[in-house]
Amino acid sequence: MSGSGRGRLVSLVLLVLGPFLVAAYVAVNRVAIRLAAAAQVKGPEWEGGRVGSDGLTSLGVDTWRAVWWSAAFMGVVAVAFVVIGVLLRRGGRGRTPLLVLSGVLLVPYAGVILFAYFNPVRLLSGLYDTPDFSDGIPSWQWATFLILLAAGVAQAIGLGLSAGEGRRRSAPAAAGERVRGEGQEAPEAR
Question: Which positions, given as ranges, span the membrane (predicted)?
């Protein structure tokens, strides 16, 4: 495989890695929330209450919804970055609106990463004042926001590589148009 072929593959892999890492964030947090809900039910302060068929208490359901909805939003933005990256690879006209759109989409992407940094699982358990749930949250759960950060970095690098690739593709065509535009005939007309 040639060097440029490898570059194309790397940019595509980095772009697609974003949605997969968002899904990994969801899965890891689901495990953490289930462990915390199980600890809440087994804890001394449990007064009984509704536990769903999936083993989640009402606090578990609320924390799961916060994680799921924020990750779903980020997943949509991550898929949009994949589409933008693929379109940027083509080269030619229409690249500026795509680059502007990708810059605008960085704001909600960063917002979800910041939301995950503040750890909605830990925040909601504090609001509900449930020490058993809080104690049941695995010690590694705080670091799950790093998965989203890795998704953002991977997609930013992939988008940059895709934009550079598209620019290289459109550069020879633009150079040829300039040469012909300076009063020279097209090679076919000679």
Answer: 66-87, 99-119, 139-161
Q: How far apart are CA 88 and CA 168, in angstroms?
A: 11
Instruction: Work out the number of other CB atoms within 10 angstroms of the CB of residue 73.
Output: 16
Does the structure show a pLDDT above 80 at 8?
no
Structural domain count of the chain: 1
Distances (CA, A) of 98 to 95, 111, 161: 5, 20, 14
Per DSSP, helices labelled H in the chain are 3-42, 58-90, 95-117, 120-127, 131-136, 145-181
Strand, helix or coil at 85?
helix
Backbone phi, then psi, for 50, in 5-degree steps?
-80, 130
DSSP structural state of residue 184: P
Whether 138 is covered by a domain: the verdict is yes
Among 151, 78, 145, 135, smallest CA distance to 108 is for 78
More confident residue, 1 or 68: 68
Condensed to tens digits (0 to 9), the pLDDT of residues 132-157 reads 999 999 999 999 999 999 999 999 99
**Which CA distances in Å does 168 have to 54, 61, 152, 161?**
52, 49, 24, 11
User: Can you tell me the mean pLDDT for 9-29?
Assistant: 96
**Structural domain contains residue 178:** no
Residue 86 lies in a domain: yes
